[in-house]
Amino acid sequence: MSDKISFTNLTKKQIKTADFERIYKKLLLGWDLSVVFADTTFMKNLNKKYRNKNKVANVLSFLLDKRRGEIFLNIDEKKLSYLFTHACLHLLGYSHKTQKNAKIMEQKEKEMVQ
Asked: Which domains does the chain have, with CATH numbers?
């Protein structure tokens, strides 16, 4: 079992990773996680390719294997820590398809970014 988080920045913007590392340790410790920071064009292309949606995504998460995932974050979005938490919860199986599940997920997100 791996236990690491790695970051790839496909943009020229500076990124501080401390908040992402803190959230990772709370939610996905023991996972092999890749986090990619990308621009809006990249995020739109990725969203179209994998979700068949022709619009810019703010965050996308992909479960690659048991306890291994990849998260793509749109660098131009505000509250990247919140979006990162949202993606981590999706990797853990959380969903917001029903109102009840959406409230549970929202509460978890608030707990993590405080």
From this structure: 4-113 (3.40.390.30)
